[in-house]
Amino acid sequence: NQTIILKQRPIGAPTLSDFDFVNDDSDLTPKEGEILLETIYISVDPYLRGRMSDAKSYVAPFEVGQPITSGIVAKVLVSKNTNFKEGDYVSGLLDWKTKQISNGKGLNKVNNQNNIPLSAYLGVVGMTGLTAYCGLTQIGKPKEGETLVVSGAAGAVGTIVGQIGKILGLRVIGIAGSDEKVEMLTSEFGYDEAINYKTTKNLSSAIASAAPNGVDIYFDNVGGDISEAVLYNINQFSRIIVCGAISVYNNTTPQKNATVQPFIVKNSALMQGFIVSNYASIFPEAIQKLATWLEQNKLTYTETIVEGFENTPQAFIDLLDGKNKGKMIVKTY
Ligand code: NDP
């Protein structure tokens, strides 16, 4: 039974030497109330980078020498818990282990309901979809006809945000890091326009051309210079949804002072950060909406699937490097 542990805290961009594989010889016989799980899909997520540092945050840091934990879909191999039976599939926060014992707390059953594939419970009908839906609707408060800009647009959250924006009648502009991603956004995900931030010389004026009526809502996944360029284009009473700041997660020195605050002030803009769990009370409604849109083919999603449990650390490294389109997931075998 294999376990992936944090060997040392990464400095800057994580490397394979920050992780280690250990053979876990703990007893895999469930006691009364417990289940034995076999890992099927592992979610790799940008926020895990934060947990690898020991800086104070909204979740405790990973301990050096201990397993990494993330969203996992697993199969119940043996059950001594009346809530689960052998052959059930569950999703929840679990350790990066090929097999593990759980008491079932915090796990949701995901037995191929509504023909939704198991991996989607780590993406569009999991944390990713909830982040997109809750951030856009609860902070963005979109009104038909408004203009939405999404950064990190070709990633897991971004591909869903843009589509929800279209369903709600917005003009949607995406920012992503390659020509292939930009093409995918307009051809597969209904984005009205998309901009490659790596090749565009003047991002602020490219956004101005793509958003002739200005930007009413900005769904920010990346922070840094890209966000600065968007904020120069915001409208009065615009809403800025600060979901993530992946452009600075590997920084070892603080960012320079932002110069965008005057634009927030003069436009009476609202800028609000959030953690998806803030909106737990609307999760049932949100999942219902996302599943219905999927069924009606109003919503689609893409995944980058990496095969092999042993490739999980590399998949995480590649995610931070933009090698994914849509949700990055490891299939363990
Ligand atoms: P993604 O699938 O979007 O993967 C990360 C993407 O970030 C990469 O594909 C890459 O795409 C882009 N990226 C990497 N480095 C940079 C950079 N320097 N500048 C701009 N873009 C960069 O991940 P998720 O959809 O899972 O997460 C997106 C964001 O949402 C993250 O910031 C994450 O922390 C946040 N998040 C927040 C949650 C919350 O509760 N607030 C919950 C879930 C996610 P590219 O090729 O375009 O550069």
TrEMBL record:
Key words of the record: Oxidoreductase
Record-annotated Enoyl reductase (ER) domain positions: 14-330
Keyword Oxidoreductase: yes
One Pfam family in the UniProt entry: ADH_N_2
Domain of life: Bacteria
Protein name: NADP-dependent oxidoreductase
Organism of provenance: Wenyingzhuangia gilva
